[in-house]
User: Fold this.
Amino acid sequence: MLRRIRKFLALDWQHKKLFVQAYLVLGKVRYSLQRRPFKKLVAELDVSRDAVVQAPLEPSARATALAVGWAVRTAANFTPWESTCLVQVLAAQGLLQKRGIAGVFYLGATNNGARDETPGFLAHAWLKCNGEFITGESGHRSYTVISSFSWS
Assistant:
């Protein structure tokens, strides 16, 4: 625990601020997902089942997007609540949109019944900015995209 605190204190103030923002937004998103339908949370986003082509990001926007991804993934490891891939994606999406950075997040599903005795589907969410992963990269290849949500 002490090592983690030292590591946090060694961060520059911008990363500390972003980490705290990500932590708070993760909590807000988790609470919102428990209280409101997913459809209402993404009502303002463009929904598509086709691939979304994005304009290239400026180097500073790319650096900010990657920093947001780092902050969300890192803060998710410290939340006392479960910060699933969907919670992380929606938190990162909100932080990126607030900063004027466009992106796309994907929802994918796979039938896990073929792999084990548990019937049903598994789902996963991941977020990209101009084709670069921000959150949810791990394991995304195992899932078929069922919807994508974009903002600009």
In short: The chain has one domain: 2-151. The radius of gyration is 16 Å. The mean pLDDT is 88.
